[in-house]
Automatic annotation (TrEMBL):
Species of provenance: Paenibacillus phyllosphaerae
Catalysed conversion reaction: phosphoenolpyruvate + UDP-N-acetyl-alpha-D-glucosamine = UDP-N-acetyl-3-O-(1-carboxyvinyl)-alpha-D-glucosamine + phosphate
Protein residues bound to phosphoenolpyruvate: 22-23
UniProt-listed GO biological process terms: cell division; cell wall organization; peptidoglycan biosynthetic process; regulation of cell shape; UDP-N-acetylgalactosamine biosynthetic process
Primary role: Cell wall formation. Adds enolpyruvyl to UDP-N-acetylglucosamine.
Protein name: UDP-N-acetylglucosamine 1-carboxyvinyltransferase
Modified residues (2-(S-cysteinyl)pyruvic acid O-phosphothioketal): 117
EC number(s) given by UniProt: 2.5.1.7
Amino acid sequence: MSKIIVRGGQRLVGNVKVSGAKNAVLPILAATLLAQEGESVIADVPFLDDVNTIQQVLGALGASLSYENETMRISAQQLSSYEAPYNLVRKMRASFLVMGPLLARMGCARISLPGGCAIGTRPIDQHLKGFEAMGAEIMLGHGFIEARTSGRLKGAKIYLDVASVGATENIMMAAVLAQGTTTIENAAKEPEIVDLANYLNAMGAVVRGAGTGVIRIEGVDKLVGVHHTVIPDRVEAGTYMIAAAITGGDVHVEGAIADHLAPVISKMEEMGVEITETETGLRVRATKPLKGVDVKTLPYPGFPTDMQSQMMALLMASEGTSVVTETVFENRFMHVEEFSKMSGQIKVEGRTAIISGGVPLVGAKVCATDLRAGAALICAALIADGDTEVTGIHHVDRGYVDITGKLSSLGAIIERHEAVEQASSDKVHVLATGVEAAVSAAVGQPEAVIAAASLEPSIEKPKREKEVARLKPQPTWAVT
Ligand SMILES: CC(=O)N[C@H]1[C@@H](OP(=O)(O)OP(=O)(O)OC[C@H]2O[C@@H](n3ccc(=O)[nH]c3=O)[C@H](O)[C@@H]2O)O[C@H](CO)[C@@H](O)[C@@H]1O
Ligand SMILES: C=C(OP(=O)(O)O)C(=O)O
């Protein structure tokens, strides 16, 4: 099982460059499916597992792709399938973002249900409500969602019950080729929505109002491939800002856009962190003890839920009591249990966490329960006494480009240990201690052979097989 080991106690100093935004590039790559002519050239595409997954989804639909020097070239003139494979959708919920473009381009789309994940149930009802309003027929069954339309989709007025980022993007992508005008009310306002709208407009679409609560889309007949550069990742930037502040460091976060990070900057300044805008990013300095603050996550321009766990790490290192309220996802406090292994003093009551700050953190063996939880544990580990071993880092690989390299360039003592994998023809052999660990190492692999050595020797084979099936039903995994 791969892990990241951090030795706490180093002050971070220097420059760190932010990569292109995961949450912008995924919908933009999905939108390249809309280009009936020409090649799409997307620059600043971060080297992430999620990007690899969407690349495979596009490939399975018939697009041809190449990826070099953070630039992806996509030709989608000829699509050969309208079905996003289960193996890929199960790895990454954002695969569902191909539904809008497929419906618009091919009149049908079949995608397996993305299901829930560690941070909440994450329904897709608002996406489907939008497609239905535009005339699509939705069929659900056998773990699949199929959407079909006879002829073009029709422009419609759609009010979102929740300002969902994904639903706004999916509906926008479906509407650009629809007949007539689509209005999305209570639309999400995130910078990634604006980046997608800019890309669609460059392709020939007519999208107005992105970044506000009302987006109007005039359908056009055809879109073409164009060049686009993805915006910098505000969550990655925010994570390095927290890493700098927690270590009492002095770090320039190159590429960070102050406007995109306004709620994070405001809270960190309230705590006593000095943040200055430079020509190319943000300089973050912590020169005095920090004080606790209260934080409530909200859709943009509120405090981002994707920064909640990293902020909690900083609050543990600050003086006084802080209250964090999570309003976006119903189950995004899984990191609290891991923090407590590091001596963090946090009490959870429903959607609120009360943090007693200033208690020295200690190194421990912890597990990333989701992407941002992993980043938060690494931030906390930077000031913990001794070594912290973070497992579950396949989550971190979804959204952070070379986090160990970037942090060690700032002076952190951090290294990555890769799992021992013996690749056979097309299966990955997983060696790990314990059923949970073995299954967690096998997640994300299309086929895995979980070696007997991975599992408790006292458990005989039929029982081990049952245990693996219980933990993660996955028909292509075998126990040897
Ligand atoms: C790839 C990507 O961009 N991911 C981001 C996106 O996820 P994602 O687009 O999945 O998040 P949404 O904005 O859709 O979800 C926000 C809330 O709306 C609810 N909801 C959503 C859709 C729907 O049809 N019905 C419904 O009830 C969700 O359960 C959640 O409670 O925005 C989230 C909220 O900022 C971020 O944490 C994710 O990093
Ligand atoms: C929750 C996140 O991503 P996703 O929506 O892709 O799961 C995230 O980026 O923190």
